[in-house]
Amino acid sequence: EVKQICERELKQKNLPDLIIRDYDVDQLYIDCYDWPETCVARVTFTIENAGLKNAGSFHVRVVFDPAQSVAVNLAVVGLDAGMSQVFTVKTPPGRNCFDPDCAVCVLVDSENRVAESDEENNYRCINKSEKGALKGK
User: Does the reported pTM lie above 0.85?
Assistant: First the structure.
């Protein structure tokens, strides 16, 4: 007797899994110095390797206010299994999130260099209108 076996996707558990942690609207700030042209938006988040293998080098892309596409790219040397790293990223002066619906989006492994057990958890956006205006500091 011959039975047909349907193809199915298996998630590999013995790979890295890069995820974004500790990233919420309370981590968004606007820093202004003398005048609006000097203002910068700043965000802090944590990237964790929740997988069972070390992750090699990868890039992180942070986009402040996607309507304006203010992007900052980071190169990360790597992240060992079970470890995490905190990042603080800011925009160039004058390129900030004064838009009331400003969102800040983070994409881990933006160039898809790391084979992961779950590729679906590498992107996260937060919107400052969730709690009102950005914190000033």
Answer: no
Q: Which residues contact 135 (CB under 8 A, 6 or more apart)?
A: 26, 28, 29, 30
**Closest C-alpha among 43, 59, 36, 70 to residue 109:** 59
| Assigned token pair, 108 | 């881990």
* CA distance linking residue 134 with residue 111, whole number of Å: 29
Q: How does strand 40-49 pair with strand 18-21?
A: antiparallel
Which residues, other chains included, contact 69 with Cβ-Cβ below 8 Å and sequence gap of 6+? 63
Q: Which of 55, 47, 72 is nearest to 123 (CA)?
A: 47
SS3 25: helix
Q: How far apart are the first and last CA of the chain?
A: 72
CA distance 60 to 75: 7
The structure tokens listed for 113 are 């260099």
The conformation of residue 122, written as its DSSP 8-state character, comes to: S
Write out pLDDT tens, residues 72-85: 899 999 999 999 99
